[in-house]
């Protein structure tokens, strides 16, 4: 199928596998790219050395286009520079926007994909010359905003035309893809469904929980931004992760002051914990 997204990214299937943060295995990105869509390598909590090794491993598994993802919560400059030195076909940026990073990517010959959650954020990204926009509704797994995919996507499509828009948030099968194409998107960016894929490395119990979960089993982890590392310059405010409801999430959502006090214990291992803006 050909759309403005497949043309821009030089792929055959209008689907981007969104980064799954620290849970983004090379073999998943390779399988997605080999299937004609485009796979994404995550860089969260990965060193520059690991990123170089991941890109080399991915290139060993596919010669098709791929994306390397970074976020501004926070941005590791070393990791960003290591990524661009490898001249990937495309990079994506989430949870904030910085025009200087768009220029860096273009200087390195990489397309720039910007994820966003409001029309105003999309307009800013378009003005900075991004190549693809991911319009992510509040249904999405991981960090997200508050506007639903159904209402966000057509507004963004109109605001940034002719930049191709990939819709994200709640797309998990062909019906979802067809629906967002009708809204004017040029494809979909899918995350949660791919966490449950065979090539994903999360534990089988988690894959089963994802597949069996009902829509109301997911909640916003309101406490999370207060315990995760501080965002970098340019980060979007008012984004919160959407996750499966667990006892852990229920406990700390009910006690935000306690979560802030316990931040260093609750932050993921390998992260630097809370600090000032970088
Ligand atoms: C566990 C998990 C981790 C994620 N980590 C990242 C990340 O590091 N960077 C990013 O841009 N998006 C991240 N996302 C968002 C996805 O790339 C994608 O945009 C989102 O999952 C799309 O919505 P869906 O879950 O309804 O398919 C993550 C999503 C999940 C579920």
- Silhouette: globular
Oligomer: single chain
Task: Give the tally of β-strands.
Answer: 11
Question: Structural class per helix/strand content?
Answer: alpha/beta
Low-confidence stretches: none
Q: What is the residue-averaged pLDDT? A: 95
| Termini gap | 42 Å
The proportion of residues in beta strands is 15-25%
Q: Strand count, sense and closure of the main sheet?
A: 8 strands, parallel
Separate helix tally: 14
- Bound small molecules, deduplicated: flavin mononucleotide
Rg on CA atoms, Å = 18 Å
The share of residues in helices is: 25-40%
Pattern of helices and strands: HEHEHEHEHEHEEHEHEHHEHEHHH
Strand line-up in the sheet with most strands: 1-9-8-6-5-4-3-2
Describe this structure in words.
With 278 residues, this protein is of the alpha/beta class. It contains 14 helices and eleven strands. It has helices spanning 4-9, 26-34, 48-61, 77-85, 99-107, 119-127, 149-160, 174-182, 192-195, 204-212, 224-227, 247-253, 256-261, 263-266, and strands at residues 15-17, 39-41, 66-71, 90-94, 111-116, 132-136, 142-144, 165-168, 187-190, 218-220, 240-244. An eight-stranded parallel β-sheet has the order 1-9-8-6-5-4-3-2. Strand 8, helix 8 and strand 9 (187-190) form a beta-alpha-beta unit. It is globular. The structure holds flavin mononucleotide.
């Amino acid at each position: 199928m050909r759309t403005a997204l497949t043309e821009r990214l030089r792929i055959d299937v209008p689907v981007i596998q969104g980064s799954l943060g620290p849970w983004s295995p090379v073999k998943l990105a390779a399988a997605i790219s080999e299937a004609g869509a485009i796979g994404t390598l995550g860089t969260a909590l990965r060193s520059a050395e690991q990123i170089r090794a991941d890109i080399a491993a991915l290139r060993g598994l596919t010669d098709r286009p791929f994306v390397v993802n970074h976020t501004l919560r926070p941005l590791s400059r070393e990791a960003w520079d290591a990524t661009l030195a490898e001249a990937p076909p495309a990079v994506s940026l989430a949870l904030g926007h910085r025009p200087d990073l768009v220029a860096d990517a273009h200087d390195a010959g990489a397309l720039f994909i910007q994820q966003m959650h409001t029309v105003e954020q999309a307009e800013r990204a378009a003005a900075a010359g991004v190549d693809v926009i991911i319009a992510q509704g509040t249904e999405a797994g991981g960090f997200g905003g508050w506007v639903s995919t159904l209402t966000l996507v057509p507004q963004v499509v109109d605001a940034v035309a002719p930049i191709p828009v990939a819709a994200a948030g709640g797309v998990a099968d062909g019906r979802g893809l067809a629906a967002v194409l009708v809204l004017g998107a040029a494809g979909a960016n899918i995350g949660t469904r791919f966490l449950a894929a065979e090539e994903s490395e999360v534990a089988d119990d988690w894959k089963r929980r994802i597949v069996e979960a009902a829509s109301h089993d997911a909640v916003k982890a309101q406490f999370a931004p207060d315990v995760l590392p501080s965002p970098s310059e340019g980060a979007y405010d008012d984004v919160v992760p959407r996750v499966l409801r667990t006892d852990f999430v229920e406990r700390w959502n009910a006690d935000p002051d306690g979560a802030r006090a316990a931040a260093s214990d609750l932050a993921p291992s390998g992260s630097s914990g809370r600090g000032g803006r970088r």
